[in-house]
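Hi R.,

As promised on Friday, here is the backbone we talked about, encoded as C-alpha cells. Could you run it through your design pipeline when you get a chance and send me back a sequence?
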C-alpha cells in the first residue's frame, strides 16, 4: 500500500489488505520488476556516489570481494583537512571541499565522510599511474575555489590488492602520503 501511494505522488492513497503480502508465484516476474523499481536510484546526481559510514562498510566489503574475484584494480584515498590560520568556519569550508570533490569524481567512485575533517574515496579501475593525475586534478579544482586558502590538505593513497596465492588482502603495499 505504501509503495502504491508513493508511486502516485503526494495526493495518492491506498488501503492495505492482508492478502497483498501473499503474492502468487504467477506474479513473480512483475514482483521482480517492482523490486527493481524500488531499489533504483532516482535523480542520480553527477559525480561520486556519496554514502554514509554504515553503508560504506557494506559497499567496501562487497567491493573487496569484487576486486579479488575479478582481479580488478582499485585505490582507496584518504583526504585529511586542517584549517589554515585564516579559516573562519572550518566545518563550512570542509563541506565545500567535499561537495567539490564529490562533483569532480566519476559516478562509479564512492565517497564517505569519515569525520568533519576526513573524506575516504573508493576509486574502482584506478591504477598507480592514475592516482597522481587524479589528485592533481582534484587539487587544481579546489585551488580555483575562493575557499582554497582556508584549508591545508593531506592525502594518503593505497592500492586495494590481493596476492594471487592468498585469500587475504595484501597489507604490505606502500601507502603514498602527501601534504599539500
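Update: got your reply. Pasting your designed sequence below so it's all in one thread:
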Amino acid at each position: 500500500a505504501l509503495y502504491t501511494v508513493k508511486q502516485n505522488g503526494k495526493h495518492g492513497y491506498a488501503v492495505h489488505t492482508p492478502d497483498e503480502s501473499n503474492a502468487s508465484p504467477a506474479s513473480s516476474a512483475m514482483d521482480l520488476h517492482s523490486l527493481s523499481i524500488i531499489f533504483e536510484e532516482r535523480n542520480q546526481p553527477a559525480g561520486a556516489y556519496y554514502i554514509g559510514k554504515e553503508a560504506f562498510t557494506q559497499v567496501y566489503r562487497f567491493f573487496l570481494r569484487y576486486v579479488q574475484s575479478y582481479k580488478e584494480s582499485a585505490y582507496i584515498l584518504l583526504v585529511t583537512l586542517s584549517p589554515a590560520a585564516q579559516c573562519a568556519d572550518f566545518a563550512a569550508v570542509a563541506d565545500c571541499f567535499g561537495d567539490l570533490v564529490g562533483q569532480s569524481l566519476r559516478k562509479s567512485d564512492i565517497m564517505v565522510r569519515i569525520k568533519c575533517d576526513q573524506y575516504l574515496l573508493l576509486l574502482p579501475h584506478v591504477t598507480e599511474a592514475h592516482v597522481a593525475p587524479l589528485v592533481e586534478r582534484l587539487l587544481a579544482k579546489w585551488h580555483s575555489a575562493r575557499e582554497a586558502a582556508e584549508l591545508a590538505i593531506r592525502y594518503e593513497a593505497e592500492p586495494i590488492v590481493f596476492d594471487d596465492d592468498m585469500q587475504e588482502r595484501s597489507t604490505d603495499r606502500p601507502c603514498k602520503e602527501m601534504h599539500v
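One thing I noticed while checking it: The chain is about 35% helix and 20% strand.

Thanks again,
M.
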